[in-house]
Amino acid sequence: MKTSRRLPLLATVSCLVVACTDNSTTPTESPAARRVSGAGPYKHVFHGRGWRGPTGAYAPPGPMTDHGGAVMTAPKTYAIFWGTSLGTDPTFTADKMTGLATFFQGVGGSPYERILTEYSGSVWVNDTVLYTYLTLDSLSHYGFGGSFVDNRSAPSSDPSSSTVTAEVCSVLSINGVTPSQNGFYSVYATTPFDPISRICAWHSYGDCGNARIKIAFYFDLDNACSPNDASGLHSSGLAALANVSAHELSETITDPTLVTWYATDGSGEVGDKCAWTFSDPLVTLANGAQFKLQDEWSNKAYSGGFGYQNQIGEAGCLDGQVWPHVMVSITSGNSPSKVPTQQYCNWTASAIGGTPPYTLTWTVEGSNVTPLTATGPTLSAMEYTPGPFAVYATVTDAGGSTDNFLRDVRGSSGYWDISNCPQG
After folding, report:
1. What does each C-alpha distance from 34 to 195, 269, 271 come to in angstroms?
2. What's the CA gap between 53 and 50, in Å, rounded?
């Protein structure tokens, strides 16, 4: 006889977070517009202001779609500065190194990165491919591992992804850092910006030991790719690198190996769709730092018509400073994330934007679960037998606007993985 299970609900308020790792496999990439081939995997490039693609626009029209790859949860970033002149520049450390460290330390868990929480992708759990959603709790565990300077000669022109992967592996080895497949390694070089190709930066991936690392390469942008920051807070070079870094980081999180979230021809990643679109003169990060950062694309904003317009008039761009429409996300209230089946597990839903106050409703569904509903900010549940089920949170604001968020749960071998991935 099949044993049924019930999920008792408690109405308590908690706000704990849990970090995850990206343990997915990588499908084979395919060439597409704005993906540059060479030695190693393709590079997804970010062009300067005014560039136009095959459609006559910076990126193709319409929403991004999921092509079945992975997303990165809780990435850890390292900054590598590459070039012989860096060690002799007395202002370099105080300007770019310190400024970019401040940017990376503040972007994780910020309202700016919250834009990405609507995107999902595959991840490995207990030898099973599951679907995971980027959440504010996972992105708040985004970390900055530190900066390294390599005074060896940087390439004189645009390097291949294999060359940059080799540079990252070398620097990590010299500094005793183990490469991680959940690492994002940003390489800032003295390589001159090419006014003909107009490439500001690019992102890709490569293998370093047993880890498939994610990389980005940035040219010398002291006199190129400026966001036109008029605040006076940063040098022109730092302002350009911070904005381009926000673009590459967001695209790496949502399309780490170039097979996950992008538009139909492969060129419309989350940063491309809103490239050179700025809703506000400054974006405030989680640590209070302010930079002029481009908007990122939101499918929800586009479908609801409540975002800012990109260069071709599509209202799907957000920078996290203002949320015209209510949005909800779910955080896990358990640590570690693998919990025995007969212990309570907790989720907390949080809403932002729209018109407060909010009403939050929970729904639990699954083949071995009696459908349950509850209201309030927190859901607490116990599983009696292993098996998958789904947890939905729906928010309604005072004006009647709604949004919903799904969290899949997979139970096996006496445990259930409430955050879809093992503790990192």
Report:
1. 16, 10, 13
2. 10
Contact (Cβ atoms closer than 8 angstroms) between residue 258 and residue 44? yes
Residue 62 near residue 263, CB atoms below 8 Å: yes
- CATH code 2.60.40 for 333-417: yes
For 91-125, the DSSP string reads THIIIIIHHHHHHHHHHTTSHHHHGGGG-EEEEEE
Count of CB atoms situated within 10 Å of the CB of 307: 28
Q: Supply the DSSP string of 250-265, one letter for each residue.
A: HHHHH-TTSSSEE-TT
| Inter-residue contact 289 to 102 (CB < 8 Å) | yes
**Burial degree of 422 (CB within 10 A; 0-12, 13-18, 19+):** middle
CA distance 56 to 119: 27
User: Which of 285, 197, 286, 294 shows the shortest CA–CA distance to 244?
Assistant: 294
| Prediction pTM value | 0.79
Q: Please state whether the peptide bond connecting residue 388 to the residue before it is cis, i.e. omega within 30 degrees of 0.
A: no
Which residue do the tokens 């370099």 mark? 92
Tokens of 268: 């419309």
47: which 2 tokens? 């062009």
Spatial contact of 204 and 53, defined as CB atoms under 8 Å apart: no
pLDDT in tens, 212-253: 999 999 999 999 999 999 999 999 999 999 999 999 999 999
Q: What are phi and psi for residue 383, nearest 5 degrees?
A: -105, 130
Select from 321, 322, 381, 391 the least CA-distant residue to 361.
391
Domain ranges of the chain: 35-318, 333-417
Residue with tokens 């343990």: 23
Question: pLDDT tens digits for 28-87?
Answer: 333 344 566 556 789 999 999 988 877 677 888 999 998 888 888 778 999 999 999 886
Bond into 336 cis (ω within 30): yes
Strand 183-192, strand 296-297: pairing: unpaired
Bridge partners, residue 47, by sequence:
199
